[in-house]
């Protein structure tokens, strides 16, 4: 965003979701205070493991914009 990008999208799956939320809040409150959360999308993705088993994993996308 300091380089001129009007929007940044943070994406995370599984256990990394809490880290992505923390990053969004730290950026918004400490580094770039004029950033707003433009949108939050959540979904469930189905992943096939090497053994062939299907597993559902939660995912999140956080859009930050100036």
Considering the chains and any ligands shown, give keywords for the structure.
66 residues; alpha+beta; Translation Initiation Factor IF3; three-stranded antiparallel beta sheet; 1 helix; 23% helix; 48% strand; elongated
Fold and architecture overview:
With 66 residues, the protein is α+β, with helices and mostly antiparallel strands. The protein has one domain: 2-Layer Sandwich (Translation Initiation Factor IF3), CATH 3.30.110.20. The protein has one helix spanning 17-31, and strands spanning 7-13, 36-48, 54-65. It has a 3-stranded antiparallel sheet with strand order 1-3-2, with helices on one face. A hairpin with a 5-residue loop joins β2 (36-48) and β3. The longest helix is centred in the middle third of the chain and has 15 residues, at 17-31. The radius of gyration is 15 Å and the shape is elongated. The model has no long low-confidence stretch (mean pLDDT 94).
């Amino acid at each position: 965003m300091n380089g001129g990008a009007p929007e940044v999208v943070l994406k995370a799956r599984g256990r990394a979701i809490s880290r992505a939320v923390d990053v969004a809040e730290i950026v918004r409150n400490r580094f770039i205070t004029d950033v707003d959360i433009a949108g939050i999308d959540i979904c469930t993705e189905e992943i096939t493991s090497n053994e062939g088993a299907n597993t559902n994993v939660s995912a999140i996308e956080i859009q930050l914009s100036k």
